[in-house]
Design brief:
Peroxisomal Thiolase, Chain A, domain 1, binds oxa(dethia)-CoA, alpha/beta, 12 helices, 24% strand, 13 strands, 2 domains, 329 residues
Length: 329
């Protein structure tokens, strides 16, 4: 029988590219307005990767900050998991490039493809591997360059998303004494894959001149259905945590940064103040798998992770998939 031991977050990191794309910039590209974007989403600007950056380059910068925070070297890492839907290339795994560029000579690595839920799912894989005693030091990255799969002729999608990366190092809780993992969930509703997807480039629709001509290599989304789904599952996940632990235990909710209005509508349904929520969507838009770890590091820097209180991270997205993690800081 494998050992089961408490797991903690030893270090956090985040990186966003320097280039800023504002709503005013987008007004010049598609038929949209700053007013529409702010009212419907809360987003004011987003970051765009430089031409010479790839997803692993963003992840490495976040990972270096997380390793420094954890006080461990890249050589001490045993495993790297990268959550992304915009990896450097379909294969090999982006985690392999991250490991190579970090100098993580003793680590294995693989990617997790779960879109906006990617970091939350990958964190659960990591925590359970550490809890079992199989691994002691696991790096999880959430990194995306969504601007490379956005259609800047499609106002339904291009205004919503941005680029960035976040990272966390998981170790036995005894070694770091912070961010104890308490549990989480991983769920999906099959049959809804078409609502939010990159239609071409896989076995269903291999990349071809035709797929490019039809713009099927770009992200497609039925936003209103995603909106309703996200409000429903966000509210359920947070209610379940409150039922289990009690409202007095709740410190901070760090949701997938999907849309300010989705977050506010769900919080209203739960009957909880927005004061519990950490949001940075106005600055970065939706960065898919990177959104939760970027917000987590920024919440840490802002002093929002209260000692002894719960940090809850609900996420939802393509699939339709959803899940959450709960840590006691
Ligand atoms: O991580 C998961 C990823 N998914 C998401 O983040 C998306 C979640 N969904 C949403 O954020 C919202 O559904 C949207 C922001 C995408 C749309 O808000 P909405 O309240 O659901 O939209 P709506 O039905 O009130 O408005 C849709 C209208 C359409 O026009 P018509 O057909 O009603 O004339 C769109 O063409 O808004 C139009 N529209 C825009 N107008 C100006 C769509 N995008 C834009 C735009 N600028 N960028």
């Amino acid at each position: 029988m494998a050992e089961v031991r408490p797991v903690g977050i030893a270090g956090l990191g985040r990186y966003v590219p320097d280039r800023i794309l504002t709503n005013q910039d987008l007004e010049k590209i598609v038929d949209t307005s700053d007013e529409w974007i702010v009212q419907r989403t809360g987003i004011r600007e987003r970051r765009i990767a430089a031409d010479d950056q790839v997803t692993s380059s963003l992840a490495v910068l976040a990972a270096q900050q997380a390793l420094e925070h954890a006080g461990i070297t890249a050589e001490e890492l045993q495993l790297i998991i990268c959550a992304t839907v915009t990896g450097d290339q379909p294969f090999p795994a982006t985690a392999c490039r991250i490991g190579c560029d970090l100098g993580a000579k003793n680590a294995g690595g693989f990617d997790v493809s779960a879109a906006c839920v990617g970091f939350v799912h990958a964190s659960q894989v990591a925590t359970n591997l550490v809890a079992s005693g199989a691994y002691d030091r696991v790096l999880v990255c959430g990194a995306e360059i969504l601007s490379r799969i956005l259609d800047y002729e499609d106002r339904n999608t291009c205004v919503l998303f941005g680029d960035g990366s976040g990272a966390a190092v998981f170790t036995p809780h005894d070694d770091c004494q912070q961010g104890e993992y308490l549990g989480g969930s991983m769920s999906m509703e099959g049959g809804a894959e078409g609502i939010l997807s990159q239609p071409a480039g896989g076995s269903r629709h291999p990349a071809s001149a035709d797929s490019v001509a039809q713009r099927l290599h770009f992200m497609k989304m039925g936003g209103t259905r995603v909106f309703r789904f996200a409000v429903r599952v966000f509210a359920k996940l947070v209610r379940d945590v409150i039922d289990q632990y009690g409202i007095d235990q709740l410190g901070c909710i760090i949701p997938h940064q999907v849309n300010q209005r989705i977050i506010e509508t769900a919080m209203e349904q739960i009957g909880l103040s927005m004061d519990y929520v950490f949001c940075n969507i106005h600055r970065y838009g939706n960065t898919s798998a990177a959104s939760v770890p970027i917000a987590l590091r920024e919440a840490y820097e802002a002093g929002r992770l209260e000692k002894g209180k719960l940090v809850v991270m609900p996420a939802f997205g393509a699939g339709m998939s959803w899940g959450h993690t709960i840590f006691r800081w």
